[in-house]
Amino acid sequence: MTPTRYYIARLSQFFGIIRKNQRMSDAATEAHLLRDAEAYLGAAVWENAENIEPLSSEYWTLRKLFREKEALLAKMEECQSQLDQAHDERASLMTAALEPTQKLLNERATMISELEKMGARRDKIIKEAKEVRKTYEGLKLKLEFLSESDAANPEIDKVKARLTDLKGRFNELKDQRDEIGHKIESGDKDVERLDEQIAFEKSGRKAGASGVLQTIGVVNKSFTLLRSELGTLDSRIHHYQLEIGRYISRNASIDSACAKAAAKQRGLVSIMRALRHSIQLNHRLAGLD
Fold first, then answer.
1. Looking at residue 11, what is its pLDDT?
2. Taking CA atoms, which of 97, 117, 132, 176 is between 20 and 30 Å from 91?
C-alpha cells in the first residue's frame, strides 16, 4: 500500500467503495511477511547486537543457546556414528539370520516406527495441553478482575463458559496423553518380548545380532530425544532472533547502534519500514486505526 494507492482508496471510500475485508486481508498478509522478515533479519544480524543495551538479554541468551546447540549436534553426530556402525554390523549378521528371525526383525522395526510416531503424537498433545493451560490461567485472571470490578458484567458468563470448555479440552488431551502413554508402554514390552524371542532363536552370530539390535534401540531412543531437544532449541533461537530483528528494524533510523548492526541489511530494513507503513494504512482504511 503506497501513499498514492492509499489516497485513491480514500477517494473510493468517499464514493462508497470501502472493501474492509480486502484491507484486513492485505494487512494480515503484510504482517506475515513482516514477521518473516524480522526473523530473517534477526538471524542475519544478531551477532552484531552485542553493544545494543536493550538487546543484551536476547543477545547473551542466543550465545548460550548456540553453545548448547553445538554441544547437542556433537552428541547427535556421535549417536549417528554409533548407529551407522551398529547398522553395518547388523547388516553383516542379518545375512546369516534364519527366515523366521528375519520376520521377527521386520516386525520389531515396524513396532519401533509406530512407537516413534506415537511418541511424536504424545509430544504434540502435551504441547497443545500446555497452550490450553496457559489460556485457561489467563482467563482465570480475567475472570477475577471482572468479578472484582463489576459482578454484573455480562462478559463474566462468557469467560466462565470458555473456562469450562478449556477445562474439558484439557481433560480430553490428558486422557489422550494417558491412552497413548499406555500404548507406548505396552509397545515397549512387546519390543522387549521380541528381543527375547530373537535372542532365543539365534545361535552364534544370532546372539551377537541381539546385542547389536539392543544397541540400535538404545541409541535410536537417545537420538530421538536429542532431535526433540534440537527442535525445542531451534524454536527458542528463532524466538530471540525474531525479537532482535524486530527491535533493530524498528530503531535502525533513530539508533546508531541499530543502524550499524543492520548496515548490510539496509535494503531489507527499508522494505520492512514500508511494510509497517502499509499495514498502518490498510488498518486505517479498514477503520481499525
1. 41
2. 117
